Amino acid sequence: MVFSATARDPDGVRRTVSREADSREAFVAMLRAERYVVLSVEEVKKSGALPPRWHPAWLKPMTGFDVEMGLRQLASMLKSGVALLAALDTVEEQAPCPRAASAWRKVRESVFSGGSFAGSLERQVRRFGEITVRLADVGERSGELEHALTRAADQMEARRELRTAVVNALVYPLVTVAMAVGVSTYLVVAVIPKLAEFLREGGVELPGMTMALMDFADFVKVNGFAILGWIVAAVVAWFAARRFEGARELEDVFLLRIPVTGRILRLSGTALFARAMQIMVESGVTLLDALDVSSRLMSNTRYKHRIKTARDGVMHGGSLADSLRPATEFMPMLARMSAVGEVTGSLAESFGEVARFHEMLLAIAIKRFGMLVEPVMICVTGAIVGFVYIAFFMALFAIAGAA
Q1: In angstroms, rounded to a whole number, what is the distance separating the alpha carbons of residues 361 and 331?
Q2: pLDDT tens column, 188-207
Q3: Distances from the Cα of 203 to the Cαs of 207, 213, 215, 382, in angstroms?
Q4: In Å, what is the CA distance from 174 to each residue of 183, 364, 381?
């Protein structure tokens, strides 16, 4: 049988130890002979078989939410005294999809082979994230792994909610514009040509608005494929340009300077950076490591560049506040609160205040943005449809007057 124990080694460091033994008592005696202080013991059961690779269940991806829930479950069991290997086995069993179960199984097998928990996560850093790995490393060394995992899950939750709020705010107008374009395309391609044929049979001079509408419909009908080709070419060129860091940074800078949506992006970037820094500094991650991990969390390349520059400034002896001050893409409060935190020794609290304040401003900005965009989109869609109807009825009145 295989047993796993949470114990303190002769140096007082909390560890997870796994061994084969004939019984629980023999396993505990083995550890005590090595001067371990045993805190809890669990029998490690063999993991269940995963479905074959060709099974459709493998098509479901492992999401960040799956990782977040796994971390919370793991932290809860560790707080209750469950040994790490037994907790990992349970998380694997309750994983929502085979990919998630496979990821947790790899972590468990690595820990069972003698690797550290943080090192096991680092082997799959793209799935679990840099910040989770760093917090797990600090938690293992401090003996507070469960608290570190809870903070990692909190950070993932805050990032998920922030991203969802921003995406919802920016996607709404795009969906509305797409609907307006779809309605307009249907009118131009399907409705207006039939109306034009009917109106031309009337044999009367049509109003200028009606003629403009019919000419536009004819133009789209003749050049529609060419227009579509240019649109596709522009989209392909845009994706190709984004592969180059310089072009992508120029685009990200432009997005940050758009009057309304740019402010939303600046607020979200500031809140995300401050929240990540608060959690890592509070957990004992060094400032340089926290800045390095935070730069990788940012999807905006301009923010990545600014954080890396600030890290270089701190590494060469400068203060964090002075290093962040040139980064005007962040909200001004960030640098000023960083200066206060450095002077008072409460940098984590300062970052927490910055995050809370800008998360509140972001919620207000998103609400106002929705209130502004909704009537504008309704007016634009109504104007397009209304123009078609007015042009059509003016032509009908002209035909009726001629009769």
Answers
A1: 11
A2: 677 766 766 766 666 666 67
A3: 13, 17, 17, 30
A4: 14, 20, 13
d(CA 261, CA 276): 23
The two tokens of residue 223 are 């050049």
Class for the domain spanning 161-403 = mainly alpha
Q: For residue 51, what is the DSSP state?
A: P
Element housing 148 (H / E): helix 145-186
Nearest to 172 by CA among 264, 269, 300: 264
Residue 256 DSSP SS3: helix
**Residue 341 Cα distances to 164, 357, 376, angstroms:** 30, 16, 43
Instruction: Give the model confidence (pLDDT) of 100-124 as tens digits.
Output: 888 998 998 888 877 888 888 888 8
Are the C-beta atoms of residues 117 and 111 closer than 8 Å to each other? yes
Phi, psi of 15, rounded to the nearest 5 degrees:
-135, 165
How is the chain split into domains, by residue range?
1-44, 161-403
Q: Name the token pair of 196.
A: 């034009």
Listed in sequence order, the residues at least 6 apart from 195 whose beta carbon sits closer than 8 Å to its beta carbon are: 214, 392, 395
Amino acid symbol at 2: V
Residues whose CB is less than 8 angstroms from the CB of residue 219 and which lie 6 or more positions away in sequence, other chains included: none
Name all contacts of 380-385 with Cβ < 8 Å and 24+ positions apart: 380/177, 380/180, 381/176, 381/179, 381/180, 381/183, 384/180, 384/183, 384/184, 384/187, 385/183, 385/187
What are phi and psi for residue 204, nearest 5 degrees? Answer: -120, 165
- CB-based contacts of 179, cutoff 8 Å, min separation 6: 381
In this prediction, residue 270 carries a pLDDT of: 92
Nearest-angstrom CA–CA distance, 9 and 297: 35
Phi, psi of 22 (to 5 degrees): -75, -30
Pair 365, 164: CB distance under 8 Å: no
